[in-house]
Design a protein that fits this description.
The protein is built from one helix and twelve strands, in the order βαβββββββββββ. It is mainly beta. The protein has a six-stranded mixed β-sheet with strand order 2-3-4-1-5-12. β2 and β3 form a beta hairpin. The longest helix has 9 residues.
Length: 137
């Protein structure tokens, strides 16, 4: 698919925000070659997080800031094709280990109550060719 979620560092998001007006590099790339890309800042929301959308003739990139990409990873972004990622809770012996609330997990000598929310799950990544690590210089 041509629609990707891009987790980008703060420096990459700052660079995108510095691009002028309603266009991405003046709405032209490589001169008059017809390769065009449009930038829409804060086009949507992803769980309350602003999304910067870059539309190109190759597809749409939805940039979201990821604060963990810092230090040596400050010039990197990770492009994810959400059509090829699935949430998979662990399951075995006919028992699902998806999110559950376990109550009264405190020690016997504690005067109080402690509950726990437990999830045993992972992400299934299929077609790794549809995902990418991008490095900006």
């Amino acid at each position: 698919g041509g629609n990707k979620l891009v987790l980008a560092s703060r420096s990459i998001m700052n660079w995108l925000n510095k691009l002028g007006g309603e266009s991405f590099l003046g709405n032209t790339m490589a001169g008059n070659s017809g390769m065009r890309a449009n930038l829409d800042k804060n086009a949507g929301q992803f769980n309350g997080v602003p999304v910067t959308t870059v539309d190109t003739m190759y597809g749409t990139l939805n940039f979201v800031m990821e604060p963990l990409l810092r230090g040596p990873w400050a010039d990197h972004a990770v492009a994810i094709d959400l059509n090829n990622v699935a949430y998979r809770p662990l399951a075995g012996n006919g028992e699902s280990r998806d999110t559950q609330i376990i109550t009264n997990v405190q020690d016997n000598d504690i005067d109080g109550r402690k509950d726990m929310i437990l999830t045993e799950s992972g992400l299934e990544i299929s077609l790794p060719e549809t995902h990418a690590v991008l490095k900006f210089n």
